[in-house]
Amino acid sequence: MNNLKAELLRGLWYVACTSEELKAGKTMAKKLMGEPVLFGRDRHGKAFAIRDICPHRGIPLRYGRFDGETVQCCYHGWKFDTSGTCVDIPSTHEYQTIDYSKISCGAFPVKEQQGLVWVYFADGTERPEDGRQPEPPLLPDFGLDQGPRLAIMLPFVCSVDHAALGLMDPTHAAFVHTSWWFKKNATKLRPKEKHFAPSELGWAMVRHKLPPQNIAYKLLGNDVTTEIRYSLPGLRIEHIKGDRHSVVGLTTITPVDEDKTEVRQMFWATMGWVSPFKPLLRRLMTTFLDQDRRVVIQQREGLEYNPKLMLINDADTQGRWWMQLKDEWTRSGSEGRDFQNPVRERTLRWMS
Ligand code: FES
Ligand SMILES: [Fe+2]
């Protein structure tokens, strides 16, 4: 693992933004995976993503204008449709014939479901259907049209690797997430023992019962259980369900480039009464995520010196799995063979 920069995995779907962020008839420029991408939503409501560079002279297309159907470059007015194909070159004289359809700024496959806009970064020129992850993952218990109740995003000044290691790190909470409203106190660590098993492109903390005396869990009914899945390219899906309601928490890490990352936290809930609590919940979620964000800024000061780092058992075993999964994804891709999940079923123990 390189301390400051991470290897970015391709051939996978990444969360680009929430559906709400992408307004009809508008575009939104973002750098993701080190690539300039111009996201947009056409006037019929369909989301798209094109490469934010004009193939004529390279100026970003975001400086141009979007009429709900085509993006017009600000320099010489070339127009591109939402699939990236050129549809007009204003300087074309009536005596000239130019096949516009041969000119493209490039596009990225986009899929919108459950209130999220996913974008596919191909490995070479393959399409997602022919790739190794044909579809973005679906969250359990919620329909295709059901978006998150709440979504926040904070930019992290660290590579996806450190963002991921923080995300799956069970022992930092007592030291980093210390707020009056959050239980932790570093002097009262308790032994933990959880069972893990391989799952699609990652692993799962196997479904287990949550303490019935906890008031928050009681709201979901009886027999409340949870399962937490971690998967490439940086997703954490927590599915808590009782006999009456269920909640899904999703954390996503999307690389801006090799050393910057967007971290999103969202949740879906079947309970209708969540809405009035949104401002409070938003504040708590932001405080919590901001604690993680600040720690990686401090960590970076040390990483600049390129120290040799450690991953210890069992606290960092999941961090090891993350690195092994990434490695296997890259290796299986370059060898042209199926991905073989390196994670084996086992129990992990730590104090937290
Ligand atoms: S640079 Fe875009 S049209 Fe010329
Ligand atoms: Fe954290």
Strand residue content: 25-35%
Structural class: alpha+beta
What top-tier CATH class of the largest domain fits best?
Alpha Beta
CA radius of gyration: 22 Å
What form results from the Cα inertia axes? globular
CATH architecture of the largest domain: Alpha-Beta Complex
| Unreliable sequence segments | none
**Discrete helix count:** 5
List the ions, cofactors and other small molecules found in this model: FE2/S2 (inorganic) cluster, fe (ii) ion
Number of strands: 18
Instruction: Write the CATH homologous superfamily of the largest domain.
Output: Naphthalene 1,2-dioxygenase Alpha Subunit, Chain A, domain 1
Strand line-up across the major sheet: 11-17-16-15-14-13-12-18
Separation of the first and last Cα atoms: 26 Å
Number of domains: 2
What is the percent of helical residues?
10-25%
Outline the biggest β-sheet.
Answer: 8 strands, antiparallel
What do we call the CATH topology of the largest domain? Answer: Naphthalene 1,2-dioxygenase Alpha Subunit, Chain A, domain 1
Overall pLDDT confidence: 95
Order of helices and strands: EEEEEEEEEEEHHEEHEEEEHHE
Organism: Stappia albiluteola
GO molecular function, one term: dioxygenase activity
Keywords: 2Fe-2S, Dioxygenase, Iron, Iron-sulfur, Metal-binding, Oxidoreductase
Protein name: Aromatic ring-hydroxylating dioxygenase subunit alpha
Task: Explain the overall architecture.
With 352 residues, the protein is α+β, with helices and mostly antiparallel strands. The protein folds into two domains: 12-130, Rieske Iron-sulfur Protein (3-layer Sandwich), CATH 2.102.10.10; 150-351, Naphthalene 1,2-dioxygenase Alpha Subunit, Chain A, domain 1 (Alpha-Beta Complex). The chain has five helices and 18 strands. It has helices spanning 160-167, 173-176, 215-218, 278-303, 317-335, and strands spanning 12-18, 27-32, 35-41, 47-51, 65-66, 70-72, 79-81, 86-88, 110-113, 116-121, 150-156, 191-199, 202-209, 225-231, 235-241, 246-257, 260-269, 346-351. The radius of gyration is 22 Å and the shape is globular.
